[in-house]
Structure formats: C-alpha cells, structure tokens
Amino acid sequence: MSKEAPPCGLFSSGAPETPHANRTGFALTVARALSHDPGDEAGLAEWAERLHVSVKTLQRDFEREFGMPYSKVRTKLRLSTSRVLLEIRPVAEVAHRVGYSSPSAFITAFTREYGCTPGRYAEREYDRG
What we know:
- This protein is mainly α.
- 60% of the residues lie in helices and 0% in strands.
- The chain has seven helices and no strands.
- The relative contact order is 0.12.
C-alpha cells in the first residue's frame, strides 16, 4: 500500500476528507484544510475537537505522516503558500492572508526558512518574470 505524499501547495477543494477507519489520516485531513486556508488560526486542540479525536492521537498522526509536529507542518504550508502570493501581493497583505499576526513575524519565519526576506524573494521572482 503506497503512502500518500504530504500536501505541498494549494488544493482545489478545501473540504476535509473522512479519515480512515484505522484511526489514521487525521493529519492529512488537517493539512489539506490548511493548504486551502493557510490563515486558519485553529490550534491542535481545536482540530482534534473538530475531528473527534484526542489531541495525543492527532499529535502522533502528524509525526507518523509528516515526521514533524503540527506547528511545523502549519508553518511550512503557510510559507509555501506565501511564495505564490508574493508574486502578486505586497508582503504585509501576504503575511495576513497566510495567518501571521504581523508582517515582522512573517518576515522572520520566511527568512529563517528560505534564507532571504520575502521582499527580496518577490523581487527575484519579478526579475525572472
């Protein structure tokens, strides 16, 4: 049985899928929803409640499916989405759209992940276009 690849961009449907009967797939359901709406502010406990599972079950599923905790998956999804938005939107707007409380928090996270500021990244993308 092949393992489904983790989501890495926007998906056409934001509707959560029903997790498998074997009590796994919850992390994939959350990741799909977050890829549709990266600004969703729900924490792990709220997602667990929405899915009718314990927080611990959801934590374990994130580690099993992605090899990292929920917070790291959410950050990676937000930053991945931001790269697309930076091609057409200003940094402050992108920060808000992908769920950061301030542009400076977004700039810090983006720079840590990609090694350059979002503004510099957008300039490079503009120069390539």
